[in-house]
């Protein structure tokens, strides 16, 4: 594991074997582990890839940039992490051959994505290559806080270009947006995506022209971001409206539910 209260400079990781990076649980008065990393790449057969319990600062545009690489990951997990200022995609696949970049299960759990898509172009959080699926995507107990630029596909892009079914579970998550209403939030408008959405919420001023999913799948509107959070503009998403369902039902990352 990586020690609490310490900053690590990992640069651009080239991951060729199973890897688990865990941040040490901080004791009283200690800060969390901070890991600065550039674009990570993956090659080969991996049973698992796991990041847990740390603050991750991505120093390049992507967390994973997968340019013409071949791999199979059985489970990729990001748990209890803050990912701050990610300028483009968390996962960006680039491949011209089918079935070369495969993930069986991707789990994002108990995480905070702050100032996501801080760049000036439109990138999905998870961007899939054609016929190179993540078969199962689970996003739960997380908060996604998006920046003001012209973001159109915040969550998952490329599902319409898959020949096989994908299972996408989205539950107990909160979505906050600071920018204009010219985007499609979900790129899941295809028969290849089998969706299971439940108990997701958005701030009421998160107004969009097209959510990209069925009406029953749209996150429930609560109060405005300024009414709900201490200071949404700076990324302080501590819930101050204790009557909100986000607080009473424990929606989103529990870090904010003080």
Topology:
Elements: E1 7-11, E2 14-15, E3 19-22, E4 34-37, E5 41-42, E6 44-52, E7 55-58, E8 64-67, E9 71-79, E10 82-84, E11 91-94, E12 101-109, E13 112-116, E14 126-127, E15 134-140, E16 143-146, E17 156-157, E18 166-171, E19 174-177, E20 193-198, E21 201-202, E22 220-221, H1 225-228, E23 229-231, E24 236-239, H2 245-248
Parallel strand pairs: 1-4, 2-5, 3-6, 4-7, 6-9, 7-10, 8-11, 9-12, 10-13, 11-14, 12-15, 13-16, 14-17, 15-18, 16-19, 18-20, 19-21, 21-22
Antiparallel strand pairs: 23-24
Uncertain runs are: none
* pLDDT averaged residue by residue: 87
What is the number of E strands?
24
Give the H and E element order. Answer: EEEEEEEEEEEEEEEEEEEEEEHEEH
Number of helices: 2
What spatial order of strands do you see in the largest sheet? 1-4-7-10-13-16-19-21-22
Summarize the biggest pleated sheet: 9 strands, parallel
Radius of gyration: 18 Å
Strand content: 35-45%
Distance between the termini: 27 Å
Secondary-structure-derived class: mainly beta
Shape, principal axes of CA atoms: globular
| Helix fraction bin | under 10%
């Amino acid at each position: 594991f990586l020690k609490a209260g310490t900053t690590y400079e990992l640069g651009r990781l080239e991951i060729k074997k199973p890897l688990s990076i865990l941040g040490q649980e901080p004791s009283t008065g200690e800060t969390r582990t901070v890991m600065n990393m550039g674009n990570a790449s993956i090659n080969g057969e991996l049973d698992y890839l796991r990041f847990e319990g740390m603050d991750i600062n991505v120093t390049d545009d992507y967390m994973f940039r997968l340019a013409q690489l071949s791999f199979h990951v059985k489970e990729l997990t990001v748990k209890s992490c803050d990912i701050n200022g990610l300028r483009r995609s968390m996962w960006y696949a680039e491949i011209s051959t089918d079935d070369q970049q495969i993930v069986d299960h991707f789990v994002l759990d108990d995480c905070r994505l702050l100032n996501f898509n801080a760049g000036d172009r439109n990138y999905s959080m998870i961007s899939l290559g054609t016929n190179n699926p993540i078969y199962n995507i689970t996003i739960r107990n997380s908060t996604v806080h998006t920046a003001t630029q012209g973001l159109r596909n915040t969550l998952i892009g490329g599902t319409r270009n898959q020949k096989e079914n994908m299972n996408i579970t989205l539950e107990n998550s909160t979505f906050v947006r600071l920018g204009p209403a010219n985007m499609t939030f979900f790129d899941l408008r295809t028969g290849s995506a089998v969706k299971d959405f439940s108990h997701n919420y958005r701030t009421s001023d998160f107004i969009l022209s097209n959510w990209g999913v069925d009406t029953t799948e749209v996150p429930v509107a609560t109060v405005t971001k300024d009414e709900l959070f201490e200071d949404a503009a700076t990324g302080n998403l501590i819930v101050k409206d204790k009557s909100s369902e986000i607080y009473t039902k424990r929606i989103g990352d529990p870090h904010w539910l003080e």
